[in-house]
């Protein structure tokens, strides 16, 4: 592992958790909301903005287009009065695939966009064909040149009926953002129903858009001529909340999560109760504790309201200490089991067969040097570390910083022994 001189995350397992964790604003709501600022010249105000590497990357992208921002605590203002540029560079897109979210709004505002084509990534091929087909249906012309997508719509986009082969989250968001300023009506069929998509739609409606059917598989958009900037609060991060809900299952003890929307977590809560965690809801709070041993189960990831693929790695860590054999089926991404190899290094008994993981629960996990391979995989290693004997060393923690705000601080406050220090394993 070439980790010398870089920072690792160390976790001494076996310390029971106790206390409150405040859940941050959702990364996957913040990113499209920031991209949506392109649609209306002027100053936007965001509250509950999480300070994450991905948010900084999106702000850097907006600044390169010509925007300005200012921040104080979790409040952020973004001014998009003047946008001279229309390009998202390869360097930015490789840092964050969600940069693709500027494609639709740039096209709607500037009539053109140039965005580097994202390559495959650690969790699968992740093509952008739905985004491009959708924009083409709205009248845009695109070409792929030297690794860049060039899209043009010299005249105003026009509404169309677009039916996705799969309810892609960012493709639904991109098309929504392009269609709000198009001429006429757009229907998006087989649209994503994730709470973050609904949040974006509600933000666009607040800006003056006419979108109906949010949260259903048919989104209908009546194009309008112009939109105005708004002030909005980012919804709570259901994936961060789901991750911390599982923590007492591995470390023992009890956690209270505050600033949560439990409705967004219904499927996750039901699954965790089935496994044996006691979860109580009280307004925007959730209490999670482990009273008995964990039971094995079957998990099948699916688009919302199914079990989120973004919590698959974490539940694999949890089930690796259940008393029996669990089966996890990943249906959203074709290559999202890299964490299994790292969890095995910690003593987990996991067999992979294509999109299926068979997890035989073990009595103990053992600390080991492990490597974070992607954002959610990193979170599963943190959970495993909390429940392992000894000190786990996690390398490549930049992935974690992309999506978990102040994770070390939040877990330290509730009794975990977790710290960052120069990597030691070679
Ligand atoms: C979003 C989330 C990510 C989450 C994922 C699935 C953001 C910023 N990211 O990613 O955290 O894991 O949803 O819930 O919100 N696909 C195609 N062609 C396309 C687009 C997608 O084939 O043009 C496929 C993908 O390869 C994947 C599936 O559709 O197999 C779903 O992916 P999608 O919903 O698009 O994920 P993202 O929007 O990239």
Care to describe what's here?
With 426 residues, the protein is of the alpha/beta class. 31% of the residues lie in helices and 27% in strands. It is built from 14 helices and 26 strands. The strands form 7 sheets. Strands 23-25-1-26 form a 4-stranded mixed β-sheet, covered by helices on one side. Helix 4 packs parallel to helix 6 and helix 6 runs parallel beside helix 7. The longest helix is centred in the middle third of the chain and has 14 residues, at 238-251. The radius of gyration is 22 Å and the shape is globular. It starts with 6 loop residues before the first strand and ends with a strand. The model has no long low-confidence stretch (mean pLDDT 95).
Largest sheet: 4 strands, mixed
* Euclidean distance between termini CA atoms: 6 Å
Strand content: 25-35%
The level 1 CATH classification of the largest domain is Alpha Beta
Biggest sheet strand line-up: 23-25-1-26
CATH homologous superfamily identity of the largest domain: Enolpyruvate transferase domain
The backbone outline, from C-alpha atoms, is globular
Indicate the low-confidence ranges by residue numbers: none
Question: Number of DSSP helices?
Answer: 14
Give the names of the bound compounds: uridine-diphosphate-N-acetylglucosamine
Indicate the CATH architecture of the largest domain. Alpha-beta prism
Structural class: alpha/beta
CATH fold annotation of the largest domain: UDP-n-acetylglucosamine1-carboxyvinyl-transferase, Chain
Mean pLDDT: 95
Give the fraction of residues assigned to helices.
25-40%
Give the count of structural domains.
Answer: 2
């Amino acid at each position: 592992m070439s980790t010398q001189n870089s920072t690792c995350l160390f976790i001494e397992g076996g310390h029971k958790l106790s206390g409150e964790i405040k859940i941050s604003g959702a990364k996957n709501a913040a990113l499209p909301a920031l991209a949506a600022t392109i649609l209306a010249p002027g100053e936007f105000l965001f509250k509950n903005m999480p300070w994450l590497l991905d948010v900084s990357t999106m702000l850097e992208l907006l600044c390169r287009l010509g925007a300005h921002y200012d921040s104080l605590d979790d409040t952020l203002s973004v001014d998009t009065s003047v946008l001279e540029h229309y390009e998202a560079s390869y360097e930015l897109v490789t840092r964050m695939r969600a940069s693709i979210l500027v494609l639709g709004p740039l096209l709607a505002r500037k009539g053109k966009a140039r965005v580097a084509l994202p390559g495959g990534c650690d969790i699968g091929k992740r093509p952008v064909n739905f985004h491009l087909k959708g924009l083409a249906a709205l009248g845009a012309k695109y070409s792929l040149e030297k690794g860049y997508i060039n899209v043009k719509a010299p005249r105003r986009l026009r509404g169309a009926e677009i039916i996705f082969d799969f309810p892609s989250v960012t493709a639904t968001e991109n098309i929504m953002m392009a269609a709000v300023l198009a001429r006429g009506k757009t229907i998006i069929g087989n649209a994503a129903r994730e709470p973050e998509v609904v949040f974006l739609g509600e933000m666009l409606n607040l800006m003056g858009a006419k979108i109906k059917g949010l949260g259903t598989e048919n989104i209908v958009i009546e194009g309008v001529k112009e939109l105005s900037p708004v002030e909005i609060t980012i919804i709570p991060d259901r994936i961060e909340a789901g991750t911390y809900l599982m923590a007492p299952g591995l470390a023992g003890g009890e956690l209270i999560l505050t600033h949560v929307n439990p409705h967004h977590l219904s499927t996750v809560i039901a699954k965790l109760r089935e496994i044996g965690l006691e979860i109580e809801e009280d307004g925007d709070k959730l209490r999670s504790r482990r009273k008995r041993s964990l039971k094995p189960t079957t998990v099948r990831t699916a688009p919302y309201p199914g079990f989120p693929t973004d919590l698959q790695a974490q539940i694999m860590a949890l089930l690796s200490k259940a008393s029996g054999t669990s089966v996890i089926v990943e249906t959203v991404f074709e290559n999202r089991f890299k964490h299994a190899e790292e969890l095995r290094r910690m003593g987990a008994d996991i067999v992979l067969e294509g999109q299926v993981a068979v997890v035989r629960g073990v009595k103990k996990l053992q600390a080991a040097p492990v490597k974070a391979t992607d954002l959610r995989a990193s979170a599963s290693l943190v959970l495993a570390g909390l429940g392992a004997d000894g000190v786990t060393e996690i390398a490549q923690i930049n992935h974690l910083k992309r999506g978990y705000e102040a994770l070390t601080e939040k877990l330290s406050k509730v009794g975990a022994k977790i710290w960052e220090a120069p990597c030691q394993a070679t």
